[in-house]
Amino acid sequence: MNLTFKNINQNNWKECIALKVHEYQESFVASNWYSLLEAKYQGDQNPLAIYNDEMMIGFLMYGVEPETQRLELCRFMIDKKFQQKGYGRASLNKLLSLIKEKYGDIDFYTSAEPDNINTIKLYEDVGFIKTGEVMWGEIVLKIKL
Predict the structure, then answer these.
(1) Does 24 reside within a domain?
(2) Tens of pLDDT along 90-137?
(3) Which domain holds residue 35?
(4) Which residues are in the N-acetyltransferase domain (predicted)?
């Protein structure tokens, strides 16, 4: 596994929006095209493609949430063809290292739909803990880096 993050640009945006989750997961995450528009027009967001070697396998976006002013992972998806192969966990760990290197010792947040049990378990497995908060109908989790 050779994971890298790359910026979304004119050469890879179409590949990014073509990534898909399983049908039962569609209600758990915004589409990548919507996330890219949000990043373009809503400020402090960092959309990144997740690559294994030269193959785009997923997408994530992190930044400062305007309502809470917290740094958070607001989008995370692995294409359905690459799920259940360890890429999600490895990508999250790589992101947490990047956030720690870039921002230092901070609290880093994310959230998930209550029914998205697999993702909540994945977040907890890499060290996130539930805060007890519910925002936008989602369970809020954080990790101390």
Answers:
(1) yes
(2) 999 999 999 999 999 999 999 999 998 999 999 999 999 999 999 989
(3) 3-102
(4) 3-145
